[in-house]
Amino acid sequence: MKINLSKTSACWLAAAMIFSPCALAQQQPGLTATSIRIGSFGALTGPGYLYGKLAMNGVEVVFDQVNAAGGINGRKLELVREDDRCDPAGAIGAVQKLIFQEQVFALIGGGCSNATFAARETIEKADVPFLVVSSVHDGITTPPARTIFSTALTSTIESKAQVEFALDTGAKKIAVVSMRDSWGRARYTPLLEELKAKGVKIVADEEMSPDANDATAQVLRLKQADADAVIMVLFPKPAAVFTRDAQKLGFKPLLIGQTGIGDPAAFEDQVGVPGATAKFRTISMVKYTPDDPAVEKWRKLVEAKFPGDRLSVFNLFGIGSAQVLVEALKRAGPDLTREKLVTELANIREFPVDVYGAPITCTVEDHRCNKAPAWLAKEPAGPVKVLSITRVN
Amino acid sequence: MPMFCRRNVLSGLFILALGVPAFSNAYQLFVANLILIYVLLAIGLNVLVGYAGQLAFANAAMFGIGAYATALLQVHLSWPFYFAFPAGTLIAMAVGLLISLPALRLSGLYLALSTLAFAQFTQWVFSHWDNLTFGAGGFKSPPISFAPLPVSKPVGLYYLSLIVATCVTLFAQNVVASRIGRAFVSIRDGDVAAQSLGIDLLGHKALAFGISGFTAGLAGGLYSQLLNFVSPEGFDLFQMVIQKATIVVGGLGSITGSVLGAGAIIIILELLREAKGAQEIVFGGVLILFVTFFRRGIVGSLQQHFRGWDEPLHSARPIGSALPSQVRLGEKESLS
Question: What is the pTM of this model?
Fold first, then answer.
């Protein structure tokens, strides 16, 4: 049988083929009729692996859940990981590999702040949607890059929350003890700016190295300054050393942590001195600790998927972020494009996530989607409690 | 001359490098550019360590000084890259010359320790002199423009790196094949003997440090443009390990080895991305393998198995020597 098509019909047919979902899917990198390739970068080795590898494990568990339920509009999610070694050059290389070689559709990840900040320009130029999981550097999302959104608390948000918390508790003499490496600086600088903005003059400003084994000098100086609240911009190890030495030298101020020490139970173990963490309060990006019954489902999934791992707060970072990305992908519909995903990410309002302190809201003007740090405390030998959630404007 | 000889392979690599932008994606072009930058670093370090025998650990710092100086001149003084780049290179070279002053009195482990201390001091300055360096958080540098040439920034930068790397390779080959190169090697083999031959120790050590600083400065300037971001992390001890690895794997005391070693190490590091989470172990394993079984590096193995790989000053083949070459003074002076 001979089929004759008029020119008009042929044009319509061609147009229909070009603009059909299948054709659109083929035009979009990392997208097929059955799969969506999502790239992730962060440190897979070294100390930064907490913010990289563990967060990625959380993302992968969410993707597995989605895939088990049939995927998103019939498409399964594939996670492609790249190690950035916590290094700016490594992050740029990793991102370029994911975008141009692995041809991923979108990115989720980012652990070390400087590395992610360095990769921003590459991502921005490639116009690839990117959801930040753990990096806190303000420059990643401020000023907003069209395709980059963050579910991590940024340095400024954490700093505002720390100062607000200290003032709310009635602290009169606030001191700061901080690391001054790239991680510490990313928090220390906005913290000082916030203190200045609130008219607070700190009574002491001490520095510690990430591998410090002794904090006697710092503790004695803060004690001499009679500080009643100490804001700790430290990794867990130096923070534990400081807290232990403070207890030893009879210095008992309010100790205010940040997301780097986001698990008070683990911190209490690390300090190892009974009662030393009684006045320790800290921020967490998520409102649960790993042993909370509310995250039992995720504990089981993480520990089943990665035998030998114990659920950590860093897994929860990845879980929360992945839930937001999955929601945006769902809303973007079956005719998925990067543009639609960016639009949907920018339109997420009050979206409840299993782990964050408050629902997630992104806007076109503000891509910092999580502004609700949770305040945690743990009485000696007692359970971890969520004291409050600070909503930072 | 056999087909698979040093000159033909280097010429082939150059022709291949010319065509890289035509068949590579953005990631592959980035890696190729990184290789060229490490070729510069490896050549300078090999002149200093492999030829002049100065066990120095300041190359990562000088690399950083080149990157910081170039980018900071662009940011603070609004200099265009074409002025900032040579100025940054000269600053790195000047620092290299300054480091050479104590090198006259120090050698071996003492020199290693003092240059290591300098590298740590430089890291501290990068991280803490906030007003000048923007502190540990780093800063963005303005991208170079190749207008009115019809090339994008990545392609233009790649060709700029290729031109610089080619010029430096030819320059270094000529230097090491000259009287200066032989003086370097004689200093490496024995200070006292070299002095007794009338060689100016301070002058030649300073020259070796200066060449090393110069190439590190060039590499730093190009690196700052490649990333358009400069921060202290890129110039730490791991950076020094990578640079040392390039000359050990390529072949100590060999310019060709520097080129091959830089290519091999960067490609290995990129391929190891596939060994998710195990890069450091595998990278360490590769280094142990070379140090144990291929002590003369890639070039040493090529010299052993193929004709036409001898370099000037390398016509004698040592057996079981830790150093890759022995020098027969007065042998070939010209490029072989």
Answer: 0.82
